[in-house]
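Most newcomers find our protein records easier to grasp once they have seen one. The structure tokens are whole numbers drawn from a learned vocabulary of backbone shapes. The record below serves as our worked example for the rest of this section.
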Amino acid sequence: MPCLNLSTNVKLEGVDTSAILSEATSTVAKLVGKPEAYVMIVLKGSVPMSFGGTEQPTAYGELVSIGGLNPDVNKKLSAAISNILETKLNVPKSRFFLKFCDTKAHQSQEYAQCLHALHQY
């Protein structure tokens, strides 16, 4: 069961969270290759957080899945989820990190899964 946990410092009052949850669910299911019925999305807003020393809108996510993850899928997921956050919550793509964890991975491979930032260094 893929589970995407998203935390942001953006307040969710007045935001159509159902649209975010629905779009994230279908995106994760499609890209990971799992039925939507098995995808869980957790969205937490108003979380005290900063990025780069500022408290401007930012977000952090963790996606755990039993299989279905690889560098190409991870890149597509990062782009798609960051697009959702940018359009629905005004979180710039450069202020979002997404961590991937494939629970079937060998322990050393699981440890090697990295944080993926969309901005270029």
Notes: Residues 2-117 form a domain with the Macrophage Migration Inhibitory Factor fold (CATH 3.30.429.10). The longest strand covers residues 59-65. The CA atoms of residues 19 and 104 lie 30 Å apart. The helical segments are 17-32, 71-89, 107-112.
